[in-house]
Amino acid sequence: MDWAYFLQQLINGLTLGAIYGLIAIGYTMVYGIIGMINFAHGEIYMLGAFHSLITFLICQAAGISGILPLTLLLMLFVSMVLTSIYGWGVERVAYRPLRGSFRLAALISAIGMSIFLQNFVQISQGARVKPMQPLVEGGITLMESANFDVQLSYMQIVIIVLTFVLMVVFSLLIAKTSLGRAQRACEQDRTMAGLLGVNVDRTISTTFVMGAALASVAGMMVTLYYGVIDFYIGFLAGVKAFTAAVLGGIGSLPGAMLGGLLIGLIEAFWSGYLTIEYKDVATFGILVLVLIFRPWGLLGKPEVEKV
């Protein structure tokens, strides 16, 4: 066994899994509060990627793209702000009017919003793929062998470290702040939380905004890492991030990140050692097995319904 090749696939899998994990946190936060899946979340991630690319093109036209730290900060800030606005809009348009309706209505509304956002970007930005020149280049050679050199790029380091930092920050935010207490109260009983003074509408909107901000970071990281995006990238990434949230335990932030890392590793190792055509089959096949034997996920808790 070539350990250098194994280590390279491990690095690739962790990088991809970190991106899936960031998107999956948005799914699990929304589900934890309103008990529904935001199927437009993949398109929110896609919008974050386009916002970062458009911001870079504006910086390039303004002649400041050569100042790399400033350009990256502007890309991150603009992408998070604009994408958060879209996340807030999805909650106001697709979810809030149907909150008291039957559960299937909000699901259909979210799918419709997903299709709308896809076609909106396709019409406004065109259907062709959008390339982007590499901004963060170079890396570290971790291991050299006769057949293979293990490379850890600076972009991979940024993705993994930034994901870990955001995971810690959002976990502390939910566990230690008044907003986090309001979110946990709404998760347990929205009616009682409202009676006790929690602004339920604002708490739910803030949760959508937070999830959209994380998705925008993932979109920017994908734009910088792969250097090419299109209007359809949100669909498959959204499905896999949803799978990660279910795999780790829907409603659990650490579970969402764990599920994302596992799916990234499965894809990387399956593509590296077997056949790349069936990597998605392997991912969803393992999900099926987990749902059969542990339907509440790896870190989730089984729900006990009180009668």
TrEMBL record:
Residues that span the membrane, as ranges: 6-32, 44-64, 70-90, 102-121, 153-175, 208-229, 241-269, 281-299
Domain of life: Bacteria
CDD domains, alphabetized: TM_PBP1_LivH_like
GO BP: any one term: D-alanine transmembrane transport
Keywords: Amino-acid transport, Cell inner membrane, Cell membrane, Membrane, Transmembrane, Transmembrane helix, Transport
Signal peptide annotation: none
Pfam family for this entry, one: BPD_transp_2
Name of this protein: Branched-chain amino acid ABC transporter permease LivH
